[in-house]
Amino acid sequence: MTTDDPILARLTALRAADLPVRGGRTMAYVYDSGREGLEELASAAAAAFAGVNGLDMTAFPSVVELENDLVRRATALLGGRAGTFTSGGTESCLLAVLTARQHARRVRGVTDPELVLPETAHAAFHKAAELFGLTVVTVPVDPGTFKVRPADVAGALTDRTALVVVSAPSYAHGVIDPVAEVAAEAARRDVLCHVDACIGGWYLGHLRVAVREGHFAQDAPEIPEFDLSVPGVTSLSVDLHKYAYTAKGASLLLFRDAELRRHGWFAHASWPGYPVVNATLQGTKSAGPLAAAWAVTERVGAEGYTALSTRVHRATRALADGIGRIEGLRLLAPPEASLLAVASDDPDVDPFVVADEIRGSGWYLQPQPAFGASPATLHLTVTAAAAGEETVRLLLAELEKAVGRAREVGPVRVDPAIVEAAASLDPEALGPEEVDMALALAGVGEGGRLPERMAPVLAVLQALPPRLSERLLPEAIGRLYQV
Ligand SMILES: *Cc1c(COP(=O)(O)O)cnc(C)c1O
Question: Do 286 and 351 fall within a single domain?
Fold first, then answer.
Protein backbone atom coordinates (compact mmCIF):
# COMPACT_ATOMS: atom_id res chain seq x y z
CA MET A 1 0.00 0.00 0.00
CA THR A 2 1.40 3.38 -0.95
CA THR A 3 -0.95 6.16 -0.08
CA ASP A 4 -1.31 9.65 1.29
CA ASP A 5 -4.21 8.64 3.48
CA PRO A 6 -2.88 8.70 7.05
CA ILE A 7 -5.19 5.89 8.12
CA LEU A 8 -3.91 3.56 5.42
CA ALA A 9 -0.38 4.75 6.10
CA ARG A 10 -0.79 3.71 9.71
CA LEU A 11 -1.91 0.24 8.61
CA THR A 12 1.11 -0.04 6.35
CA ALA A 13 3.38 0.98 9.22
CA LEU A 14 1.89 -1.72 11.46
CA ARG A 15 2.84 -4.36 8.92
CA ALA A 16 6.53 -3.58 9.35
CA ALA A 17 6.79 -5.80 12.44
CA ASP A 18 5.10 -8.75 10.68
CA LEU A 19 6.76 -11.57 8.82
CA PRO A 20 6.83 -10.96 5.05
CA VAL A 21 3.93 -12.66 3.25
CA ARG A 22 5.63 -12.65 -0.14
CA GLY A 23 9.05 -13.67 -1.41
CA GLY A 24 9.26 -17.25 -0.14
CA ARG A 25 11.38 -16.64 2.96
CA THR A 26 8.55 -17.19 5.41
CA MET A 27 8.31 -20.99 5.40
CA ALA A 28 5.00 -21.33 7.27
CA TYR A 29 1.69 -19.49 7.47
CA VAL A 30 1.93 -17.86 4.03
CA TYR A 31 1.71 -19.17 0.48
CA ASP A 32 3.17 -17.23 -2.39
CA SER A 33 2.81 -18.46 -5.95
CA GLY A 34 5.44 -16.00 -7.13
CA ARG A 35 3.19 -15.18 -10.07
CA GLU A 36 2.75 -11.55 -10.99
CA GLY A 37 -0.67 -10.00 -10.68
CA LEU A 38 -2.36 -12.80 -8.74
CA GLU A 39 -2.57 -10.92 -5.47
CA GLU A 40 -3.97 -7.86 -7.25
CA LEU A 41 -6.59 -10.01 -8.97
CA ALA A 42 -7.59 -11.59 -5.65
CA SER A 43 -7.84 -8.17 -3.99
CA ALA A 44 -10.00 -6.76 -6.77
CA ALA A 45 -12.31 -9.80 -6.73
CA ALA A 46 -12.57 -9.69 -2.93
CA ALA A 47 -13.33 -5.98 -2.98
CA ALA A 48 -16.07 -6.46 -5.57
CA PHE A 49 -17.77 -9.11 -3.38
CA ALA A 50 -16.88 -7.81 0.09
CA GLY A 51 -20.41 -6.65 0.80
CA VAL A 52 -22.19 -9.65 -0.68
CA ASN A 53 -23.68 -11.79 2.10
CA GLY A 54 -23.30 -15.55 1.75
CA LEU A 55 -25.87 -15.95 4.54
CA ASP A 56 -28.72 -16.03 2.05
CA MET A 57 -27.97 -17.80 -1.19
CA THR A 58 -31.44 -17.05 -2.54
CA ALA A 59 -30.84 -13.31 -2.20
CA PHE A 60 -27.32 -13.53 -3.63
CA PRO A 61 -27.37 -16.27 -6.27
CA SER A 62 -23.85 -15.28 -7.38
CA VAL A 63 -22.41 -17.09 -4.35
CA VAL A 64 -24.05 -20.36 -5.43
CA GLU A 65 -22.62 -19.99 -8.91
CA LEU A 66 -19.08 -19.30 -7.65
CA GLU A 67 -19.20 -22.03 -5.02
CA ASN A 68 -20.48 -24.64 -7.49
CA ASP A 69 -17.66 -23.76 -9.88
CA LEU A 70 -15.05 -24.19 -7.14
CA VAL A 71 -16.52 -27.48 -5.92
CA ARG A 72 -16.65 -28.75 -9.51
CA ARG A 73 -12.95 -27.93 -10.01
CA ALA A 74 -12.06 -29.65 -6.74
CA THR A 75 -14.12 -32.81 -7.29
CA ALA A 76 -12.67 -33.16 -10.80
CA LEU A 77 -9.26 -33.25 -9.11
CA LEU A 78 -9.97 -35.12 -5.88
CA GLY A 79 -13.21 -37.04 -6.35
CA GLY A 80 -16.47 -36.74 -4.45
CA ARG A 81 -19.80 -35.39 -5.66
CA ALA A 82 -20.61 -32.52 -3.34
CA GLY A 83 -18.87 -29.88 -1.30
CA THR A 84 -19.02 -26.78 0.84
CA PHE A 85 -16.88 -23.65 0.70
CA THR A 86 -15.63 -22.70 4.16
CA SER A 87 -13.53 -20.00 5.81
CA GLY A 88 -10.47 -22.23 6.19
CA GLY A 89 -9.04 -25.59 7.10
CA THR A 90 -10.16 -25.40 10.68
CA GLU A 91 -13.77 -24.79 9.69
CA SER A 92 -13.61 -27.61 7.12
CA CYS A 93 -12.32 -30.01 9.80
CA LEU A 94 -14.93 -28.82 12.32
CA LEU A 95 -17.71 -29.37 9.80
CA ALA A 96 -16.38 -32.82 8.85
CA VAL A 97 -16.62 -33.85 12.50
CA LEU A 98 -20.02 -32.22 13.02
CA THR A 99 -21.36 -33.93 9.91
CA ALA A 100 -20.09 -37.30 11.10
CA ARG A 101 -21.54 -36.82 14.58
CA GLN A 102 -24.98 -35.99 13.18
CA HIS A 103 -24.77 -38.85 10.69
CA ALA A 104 -23.82 -41.32 13.43
CA ARG A 105 -26.66 -40.08 15.62
CA ARG A 106 -29.33 -40.12 12.94
CA VAL A 107 -28.33 -43.17 10.94
CA ARG A 108 -26.68 -45.43 13.54
CA GLY A 109 -28.25 -44.18 16.77
CA VAL A 110 -24.88 -43.28 18.33
CA THR A 111 -25.49 -40.94 21.27
CA ASP A 112 -22.00 -40.92 22.83
CA PRO A 113 -19.75 -40.59 19.77
CA GLU A 114 -16.01 -41.16 19.53
CA LEU A 115 -13.50 -39.59 17.14
CA VAL A 116 -10.50 -41.75 16.22
CA LEU A 117 -7.40 -39.61 15.63
CA PRO A 118 -3.80 -40.54 14.91
CA GLU A 119 -1.63 -38.54 17.33
CA THR A 120 -0.38 -36.58 14.31
CA ALA A 121 -3.88 -35.33 13.37
CA HIS A 122 -4.24 -31.55 13.21
CA ALA A 123 -5.26 -29.69 16.37
CA ALA A 124 -8.47 -28.61 14.62
CA PHE A 125 -9.92 -32.11 15.18
CA HIS A 126 -9.35 -31.87 18.92
CA LYS A 127 -11.07 -28.51 18.82
CA ALA A 128 -13.99 -30.14 17.00
CA ALA A 129 -14.24 -32.90 19.59
CA GLU A 130 -14.30 -30.32 22.37
CA LEU A 131 -16.87 -28.11 20.65
CA PHE A 132 -19.19 -30.88 19.50
CA GLY A 133 -18.90 -33.26 22.44
CA LEU A 134 -17.09 -36.25 20.96
CA THR A 135 -14.59 -38.36 22.88
CA VAL A 136 -11.16 -38.47 21.25
CA VAL A 137 -9.56 -41.88 20.90
CA THR A 138 -5.91 -41.26 20.09
CA VAL A 139 -3.95 -43.79 18.05
CA PRO A 140 -0.14 -43.71 18.19
CA VAL A 141 1.87 -43.52 14.98
CA ASP A 142 4.76 -45.72 13.88
CA PRO A 143 7.80 -44.09 15.56
CA GLY A 144 9.89 -44.77 12.46
CA THR A 145 7.59 -43.44 9.74
CA PHE A 146 5.27 -41.18 11.78
CA LYS A 147 2.31 -42.72 9.95
CA VAL A 148 -0.61 -44.40 11.65
CA ARG A 149 -0.80 -48.20 11.33
CA PRO A 150 -4.09 -49.55 9.91
CA ALA A 151 -4.19 -52.35 12.50
CA ASP A 152 -3.96 -49.79 15.32
CA VAL A 153 -6.87 -47.87 13.83
CA ALA A 154 -8.87 -51.06 13.46
CA GLY A 155 -8.25 -51.79 17.12
CA ALA A 156 -9.54 -48.37 18.12
CA LEU A 157 -12.88 -48.63 16.26
CA THR A 158 -15.98 -49.30 18.34
CA ASP A 159 -19.73 -49.16 17.81
CA ARG A 160 -19.52 -45.56 18.99
CA THR A 161 -16.92 -44.39 16.47
CA ALA A 162 -18.41 -41.58 14.37
CA LEU A 163 -15.33 -40.73 12.33
CA VAL A 164 -11.73 -41.77 11.62
CA VAL A 165 -9.26 -39.15 10.39
CA VAL A 166 -6.12 -39.60 8.31
CA SER A 167 -3.78 -36.93 6.96
CA ALA A 168 -2.47 -36.43 3.42
CA PRO A 169 0.01 -35.26 4.51
CA SER A 170 0.33 -34.53 8.22
CA TYR A 171 1.36 -30.97 8.97
CA ALA A 172 4.10 -31.75 11.47
CA HIS A 173 5.95 -34.46 9.52
CA GLY A 174 4.80 -34.12 5.91
CA VAL A 175 4.04 -37.83 5.50
CA ILE A 176 0.86 -39.42 4.15
CA ASP A 177 -1.06 -41.87 6.32
CA PRO A 178 -2.06 -45.19 4.68
CA VAL A 179 -5.38 -43.78 3.47
CA ALA A 180 -6.65 -46.79 1.50
CA GLU A 181 -5.97 -49.31 4.28
CA VAL A 182 -7.48 -47.15 7.02
CA ALA A 183 -10.52 -46.30 4.88
CA ALA A 184 -11.07 -50.02 4.25
CA GLU A 185 -11.01 -50.71 8.01
CA ALA A 186 -13.49 -47.89 8.57
CA ALA A 187 -15.80 -49.10 5.80
CA ARG A 188 -15.76 -52.63 7.24
CA ARG A 189 -17.22 -51.17 10.46
CA ASP A 190 -19.58 -48.78 8.65
CA VAL A 191 -17.65 -45.83 10.03
CA LEU A 192 -17.01 -42.60 8.12
CA CYS A 193 -13.44 -41.72 7.14
CA HIS A 194 -12.14 -38.18 6.61
CA VAL A 195 -8.94 -37.33 4.74
CA ASP A 196 -7.33 -34.14 6.01
CA ALA A 197 -5.78 -32.93 2.77
CA CYS A 198 -6.03 -29.32 3.92
CA ILE A 199 -2.44 -28.59 3.03
CA GLY A 200 -1.70 -31.37 0.56
CA GLY A 201 -4.84 -31.84 -1.51
CA TRP A 202 -4.44 -29.15 -4.14
CA TYR A 203 -0.68 -29.68 -4.37
CA LEU A 204 -0.73 -33.49 -4.56
CA GLY A 205 -3.74 -33.59 -6.87
CA HIS A 206 -1.96 -31.43 -9.42
CA LEU A 207 1.37 -33.17 -8.90
CA ARG A 208 -0.42 -36.40 -9.80
CA VAL A 209 -1.63 -34.74 -13.00
CA ALA A 210 1.96 -33.71 -13.73
CA VAL A 211 3.12 -37.32 -13.35
CA ARG A 212 0.28 -38.60 -15.56
CA GLU A 213 1.03 -36.03 -18.24
CA GLY A 214 4.68 -37.02 -18.28
CA HIS A 215 6.21 -33.85 -16.81
CA PHE A 216 8.86 -36.00 -15.17
CA ALA A 217 11.20 -37.76 -17.56
CA GLN A 218 12.70 -39.68 -14.65
CA ASP A 219 12.37 -39.65 -10.88
CA ALA A 220 8.62 -39.15 -11.05
CA PRO A 221 7.22 -38.97 -7.54
CA GLU A 222 5.07 -41.87 -6.37
CA ILE A 223 1.88 -40.50 -4.94
CA PRO A 224 -0.17 -42.93 -2.89
CA GLU A 225 -3.96 -42.95 -3.26
CA PHE A 226 -5.38 -40.39 -0.89
CA ASP A 227 -8.60 -38.85 -2.19
CA LEU A 228 -12.35 -39.47 -2.46
CA SER A 229 -11.87 -42.01 -5.23
CA VAL A 230 -10.53 -44.39 -2.57
CA PRO A 231 -13.27 -46.80 -1.35
CA GLY A 232 -14.28 -45.92 2.20
CA VAL A 233 -13.16 -42.28 2.12
CA THR A 234 -16.29 -40.25 2.81
CA SER A 235 -15.05 -36.66 3.12
CA LEU A 236 -11.92 -34.64 2.38
CA SER A 237 -10.77 -31.14 3.30
CA VAL A 238 -8.60 -29.08 0.97
CA ASP A 239 -7.58 -25.51 1.67
CA LEU A 240 -7.58 -23.09 -1.24
CA HIS A 241 -5.71 -20.48 0.80
CA LYS A 242 -2.75 -22.85 0.87
CA TYR A 243 -1.61 -24.42 -2.41
CA ALA A 244 -4.31 -22.82 -4.57
CA TYR A 245 -2.55 -19.58 -3.53
CA THR A 246 -5.84 -17.76 -3.00
CA ALA A 247 -6.53 -15.06 -0.44
CA LYS A 248 -6.97 -16.23 3.15
CA GLY A 249 -10.38 -17.43 4.24
CA ALA A 250 -10.86 -20.16 1.60
CA SER A 251 -11.18 -23.92 1.98
CA LEU A 252 -13.38 -26.71 0.66
CA LEU A 253 -14.95 -29.65 2.43
CA LEU A 254 -15.77 -32.33 -0.14
CA PHE A 255 -18.17 -35.24 0.42
CA ARG A 256 -18.80 -38.57 -1.27
CA ASP A 257 -22.35 -37.27 -1.94
CA ALA A 258 -24.88 -34.60 -1.03
CA GLU A 259 -26.76 -37.03 1.22
CA LEU A 260 -23.82 -37.11 3.62
CA ARG A 261 -23.26 -33.34 3.33
CA ARG A 262 -26.79 -32.52 4.48
CA HIS A 263 -26.09 -33.90 7.96
CA GLY A 264 -23.71 -31.02 8.69
CA TRP A 265 -26.11 -28.30 7.65
CA PHE A 266 -28.17 -26.35 10.14
CA ALA A 267 -31.74 -25.34 9.43
CA HIS A 268 -34.06 -23.34 11.66
CA ALA A 269 -37.63 -22.25 11.06
CA SER A 270 -38.79 -22.12 14.68
CA TRP A 271 -38.36 -18.43 15.32
CA PRO A 272 -40.11 -15.31 14.07
CA GLY A 273 -37.20 -14.25 11.83
CA TYR A 274 -36.04 -15.32 8.38
CA PRO A 275 -35.80 -19.07 7.64
CA VAL A 276 -32.21 -20.19 8.20
CA VAL A 277 -30.10 -22.67 6.27
CA ASN A 278 -26.40 -22.57 7.21
CA ALA A 279 -23.97 -24.81 5.36
CA THR A 280 -21.10 -23.57 7.55
CA LEU A 281 -20.53 -22.37 11.10
CA GLN A 282 -20.91 -18.73 10.15
CA GLY A 283 -24.08 -16.72 9.67
CA THR A 284 -23.43 -13.53 7.79
CA LYS A 285 -20.30 -14.10 5.72
CA SER A 286 -18.57 -11.97 3.19
CA ALA A 287 -18.39 -13.46 -0.29
CA GLY A 288 -15.01 -11.71 -0.68
CA PRO A 289 -12.81 -14.77 -0.02
CA LEU A 290 -15.08 -16.91 -2.23
CA ALA A 291 -14.80 -14.47 -5.14
CA ALA A 292 -11.03 -14.17 -4.66
CA ALA A 293 -10.66 -17.96 -4.65
CA TRP A 294 -12.80 -18.27 -7.75
CA ALA A 295 -10.81 -15.59 -9.58
CA VAL A 296 -7.39 -16.97 -8.67
CA THR A 297 -8.24 -20.58 -9.56
CA GLU A 298 -9.83 -19.37 -12.81
CA ARG A 299 -6.68 -17.40 -13.70
CA VAL A 300 -4.09 -20.04 -12.76
CA GLY A 301 -6.08 -22.95 -14.14
CA ALA A 302 -5.30 -26.66 -13.99
CA GLU A 303 -2.25 -26.24 -16.21
CA GLY A 304 -0.88 -23.45 -14.06
CA TYR A 305 -1.29 -25.45 -10.86
CA THR A 306 0.31 -28.49 -12.48
CA ALA A 307 3.35 -26.37 -13.30
CA LEU A 308 3.43 -24.84 -9.81
CA SER A 309 3.24 -28.29 -8.18
CA THR A 310 6.07 -29.55 -10.37
CA ARG A 311 8.22 -26.58 -9.34
CA VAL A 312 7.46 -27.06 -5.66
CA HIS A 313 8.17 -30.78 -5.86
CA ARG A 314 11.60 -30.19 -7.41
CA ALA A 315 12.45 -27.55 -4.80
CA THR A 316 11.32 -29.77 -1.93
CA ARG A 317 13.55 -32.53 -3.22
CA ALA A 318 16.53 -30.18 -3.60
CA LEU A 319 15.99 -28.81 -0.09
CA ALA A 320 15.66 -32.30 1.36
CA ASP A 321 18.94 -33.36 -0.30
CA GLY A 322 20.70 -30.19 0.80
CA ILE A 323 19.50 -30.34 4.39
CA GLY A 324 20.57 -33.99 4.57
CA ARG A 325 24.10 -32.81 3.79
CA ILE A 326 24.22 -30.14 6.51
CA GLU A 327 26.17 -31.46 9.44
CA GLY A 328 24.06 -31.45 12.60
CA LEU A 329 20.67 -31.68 10.84
CA ARG A 330 18.58 -34.57 9.63
CA LEU A 331 15.18 -34.98 8.02
CA LEU A 332 12.75 -36.65 10.34
CA ALA A 333 11.08 -38.47 7.47
CA PRO A 334 11.42 -38.46 3.67
CA PRO A 335 9.01 -35.75 2.48
CA GLU A 336 5.92 -37.13 0.71
CA ALA A 337 4.52 -33.74 -0.16
CA SER A 338 5.89 -30.19 0.09
CA LEU A 339 6.62 -30.10 3.82
CA LEU A 340 9.87 -30.78 5.64
CA ALA A 341 10.46 -31.62 9.29
CA VAL A 342 14.08 -31.05 10.23
CA ALA A 343 15.55 -32.41 13.44
CA SER A 344 19.00 -32.13 14.94
CA ASP A 345 21.35 -35.10 15.20
CA ASP A 346 23.92 -33.22 17.26
CA PRO A 347 23.19 -32.50 20.95
CA ASP A 348 25.01 -29.17 20.59
CA VAL A 349 22.61 -28.01 17.86
CA ASP A 350 19.26 -26.95 19.29
CA PRO A 351 16.63 -26.60 16.51
CA PHE A 352 14.96 -23.74 18.38
CA VAL A 353 18.25 -21.84 18.50
CA VAL A 354 18.71 -22.50 14.77
CA ALA A 355 15.24 -20.98 14.21
CA ASP A 356 16.21 -17.84 16.16
CA GLU A 357 19.50 -17.57 14.32
CA ILE A 358 18.09 -17.93 10.81
CA ARG A 359 15.26 -15.55 11.65
CA GLY A 360 17.96 -12.94 12.20
CA SER A 361 18.89 -13.42 8.52
CA GLY A 362 15.34 -12.88 7.32
CA TRP A 363 14.05 -16.45 7.09
CA TYR A 364 11.24 -17.93 9.14
CA LEU A 365 11.36 -21.65 9.90
CA GLN A 366 8.64 -22.83 12.26
CA PRO A 367 9.70 -24.49 15.53
CA GLN A 368 7.74 -27.61 16.52
CA PRO A 369 8.24 -28.80 20.12
CA ALA A 370 8.97 -32.47 20.82
CA PHE A 371 5.93 -34.69 21.30
CA GLY A 372 5.76 -38.45 21.77
CA ALA A 373 8.25 -40.13 19.45
CA SER A 374 8.76 -36.86 17.59
CA PRO A 375 11.80 -34.79 18.65
CA ALA A 376 11.93 -31.01 18.39
CA THR A 377 11.90 -30.04 14.72
CA LEU A 378 11.80 -27.14 12.33
CA HIS A 379 8.93 -27.11 9.88
CA LEU A 380 9.29 -25.81 6.32
CA THR A 381 6.35 -25.32 3.98
CA VAL A 382 7.81 -25.02 0.48
CA THR A 383 5.75 -22.76 -1.76
CA ALA A 384 6.30 -21.80 -5.37
CA ALA A 385 7.89 -18.45 -4.50
CA ALA A 386 10.63 -20.28 -2.59
CA ALA A 387 11.14 -22.75 -5.40
CA GLY A 388 13.67 -20.87 -7.52
CA GLU A 389 17.12 -22.44 -7.71
CA GLU A 390 18.68 -19.28 -6.31
CA THR A 391 16.29 -19.15 -3.34
CA VAL A 392 16.91 -22.81 -2.52
CA ARG A 393 20.67 -22.28 -2.68
CA LEU A 394 20.43 -19.20 -0.45
CA LEU A 395 18.25 -20.95 2.11
CA LEU A 396 20.63 -23.92 2.35
CA ALA A 397 23.60 -21.58 2.77
CA GLU A 398 21.86 -19.53 5.46
CA LEU A 399 20.70 -22.67 7.22
CA GLU A 400 24.22 -24.05 7.35
CA LYS A 401 25.47 -20.76 8.80
CA ALA A 402 22.64 -20.68 11.33
CA VAL A 403 23.53 -24.20 12.45
CA GLY A 404 27.14 -23.09 12.94
CA ARG A 405 26.06 -20.14 15.08
CA ALA A 406 23.62 -22.31 17.02
CA ARG A 407 26.44 -24.71 17.81
CA GLU A 408 28.46 -21.80 19.22
CA VAL A 409 25.52 -20.50 21.25
CA GLY A 410 24.78 -24.00 22.51
CA PRO A 411 21.44 -25.58 23.34
CA VAL A 412 18.96 -24.01 25.75
CA ARG A 413 19.04 -25.85 29.06
CA VAL A 414 15.92 -25.94 31.18
CA ASP A 415 16.44 -25.93 34.94
CA PRO A 416 15.50 -29.46 36.12
CA ALA A 417 13.95 -27.88 39.22
CA ILE A 418 11.37 -26.15 36.99
CA VAL A 419 10.51 -29.41 35.26
CA GLU A 420 10.17 -31.18 38.59
CA ALA A 421 8.00 -28.44 40.07
CA ALA A 422 5.83 -28.40 36.94
CA ALA A 423 5.25 -32.14 37.07
CA SER A 424 3.62 -31.82 40.48
CA LEU A 425 1.18 -29.09 39.41
CA ASP A 426 -2.45 -29.77 38.63
CA PRO A 427 -3.15 -27.52 35.61
CA GLU A 428 -6.87 -27.37 36.37
CA ALA A 429 -6.29 -26.17 39.93
CA LEU A 430 -3.92 -23.29 39.12
CA GLY A 431 -5.12 -19.89 40.32
CA PRO A 432 -4.06 -16.50 38.92
CA GLU A 433 -1.10 -16.10 41.31
CA GLU A 434 0.34 -19.51 40.52
CA VAL A 435 -0.06 -18.80 36.81
CA ASP A 436 1.86 -15.51 37.23
CA MET A 437 4.64 -17.38 38.99
CA ALA A 438 4.79 -20.14 36.40
CA LEU A 439 4.95 -17.65 33.53
CA ALA A 440 7.71 -15.67 35.24
CA LEU A 441 9.68 -18.91 35.61
CA ALA A 442 9.15 -19.63 31.91
CA GLY A 443 10.56 -16.22 31.04
CA VAL A 444 7.26 -14.62 30.04
CA GLY A 445 6.96 -11.42 32.04
CA GLU A 446 4.33 -8.74 32.45
CA GLY A 447 3.83 -6.08 29.82
CA GLY A 448 2.79 -8.37 26.98
CA ARG A 449 5.88 -8.07 24.86
CA LEU A 450 7.25 -11.06 22.99
CA PRO A 451 10.88 -11.93 23.76
CA GLU A 452 13.48 -11.35 21.03
CA ARG A 453 14.62 -14.94 21.16
CA MET A 454 11.96 -17.62 21.33
CA ALA A 455 14.24 -20.63 21.99
CA PRO A 456 14.30 -20.25 25.81
CA VAL A 457 10.50 -19.97 25.96
CA LEU A 458 9.99 -22.91 23.59
CA ALA A 459 12.43 -25.04 25.57
CA VAL A 460 10.45 -24.51 28.78
CA LEU A 461 7.18 -25.09 26.95
CA GLN A 462 8.49 -28.34 25.56
CA ALA A 463 9.58 -29.52 29.02
CA LEU A 464 6.14 -28.98 30.54
CA PRO A 465 3.34 -31.55 30.46
CA PRO A 466 1.05 -30.61 27.51
CA ARG A 467 -1.96 -30.08 29.83
CA LEU A 468 0.03 -27.51 31.78
CA SER A 469 1.11 -25.78 28.57
CA GLU A 470 -2.53 -25.66 27.52
CA ARG A 471 -3.33 -23.89 30.79
CA LEU A 472 -0.42 -21.43 30.51
CA LEU A 473 -0.37 -20.60 26.79
CA PRO A 474 -3.70 -18.73 26.70
CA GLU A 475 -2.55 -16.79 29.77
CA ALA A 476 0.69 -15.80 28.05
CA ILE A 477 -1.11 -14.81 24.84
CA GLY A 478 -3.84 -13.10 26.86
CA ARG A 479 -1.24 -10.66 28.11
CA LEU A 480 -0.74 -9.44 24.54
CA TYR A 481 -4.40 -8.46 24.47
CA GLN A 482 -4.51 -6.04 27.37
CA VAL A 483 -6.47 -2.91 26.44
C1 LIG B 1 -3.57 -25.82 7.74
C2 LIG B 1 -4.08 -27.14 8.16
C3 LIG B 1 -5.30 -27.27 8.86
C4 LIG B 1 -6.06 -26.09 9.40
O5 LIG B 1 -6.28 -25.14 8.47
P6 LIG B 1 -6.41 -23.56 8.75
O7 LIG B 1 -6.65 -23.05 7.40
O8 LIG B 1 -5.13 -23.09 9.36
O9 LIG B 1 -7.56 -23.34 9.67
C10 LIG B 1 -5.75 -28.55 9.09
N11 LIG B 1 -5.03 -29.62 8.73
C12 LIG B 1 -3.84 -29.53 8.10
C13 LIG B 1 -3.09 -30.77 7.72
C14 LIG B 1 -3.32 -28.28 7.81
O15 LIG B 1 -2.13 -28.17 7.22
Answer: no
Domain count, the chain: 3
Q: Is 292 left (phi over 0), alpha (psi -120 to 50) or beta?
A: alpha
Torsion angle, alpha carbons of 184, 187, 188, 191, to 10: 130
Q: What is the pLDDT along the chain (483 residues), one digit of tens a residue?
A: 556 899 999 999 999 999 999 988 999 999 999 999 999 999 999 999 999 999 999 999 999 999 999 999 999 999 999 999 999 999 999 999 999 999 999 999 999 999 999 999 999 999 999 999 999 999 999 999 999 999 999 999 999 999 999 999 999 999 999 999 999 999 999 999 999 999 999 999 999 999 999 999 889 999 999 999 999 999 999 999 999 999 999 999 999 999 999 999 999 999 999 999 999 999 999 999 999 999 999 999 999 999 999 999 999 999 999 999 999 999 999 999 999 999 999 999 999 999 999 999 999 999 999 999 999 999 999 999 999 899 999 999 999 999 999 999 999 999 898 888 888 889 989 999 888 888 887 777 666 667 889 999 899 889 999 999 999 999 989 988 988
Tell me whether residue 189 is in a domain. Answer: yes
Q: Is the CB of 252 under 6 A from ligand 1?
A: no
Regarding whether 208 and 129 lie in a shared domain, the answer is yes
Using alpha carbons, list the distances in angstroms from residue 313 to 87, 195, 292, 317, 464.
Answer: 27, 21, 25, 6, 37
The CATH number of residue 355's host domain is 3.90.1150.10
Q: Is 378 helix (H, G, I), strand (E, B) or coil?
A: strand
What is the distance, to the nearest Å, from the Cα of residue 272 to the centroid of all Cα atoms in its chain? 40
- Shared domain for 138 and 250, answered yes or no, is yes
Q: Is residue 4 part of a domain?
A: no
Atom 12 in ligand 1: which residue has the minimum CA distance? 198
Of 391, 409, 427, the residue that ends a domain is 409
**CB of residue 249 inside a 6 A radius of ligand 1:** no
Segments forming the whole domain that contains residue 368: 302-409
Measured distance between the N- and C-terminal CA atoms of the chain, rounded to whole angstroms: 27
| Among 359, 391, 409, residue at a domain's last position | 409
- Determine if ligand 1 sits within 6 Å of the CB of residue 246: no
pTM of the model: 0.97
Atom of ligand 1 nearest to the CA of 239: 7
Residue 93 CB–ligand 1 contact under 6 Å: yes
CA nearest ligand 1 atom 8, residue: 89
Residue 237 CA to ligand 1 center (angstroms) comes to 9
Dist. CA 89 → ligand 1 center (Å): 4
Do 132 and 239 belong together in one domain? yes
Ligand 1 contact via 196 beta carbon (within 6 Å): yes
Q: Check residue 341 and report its DSSP letter.
A: E
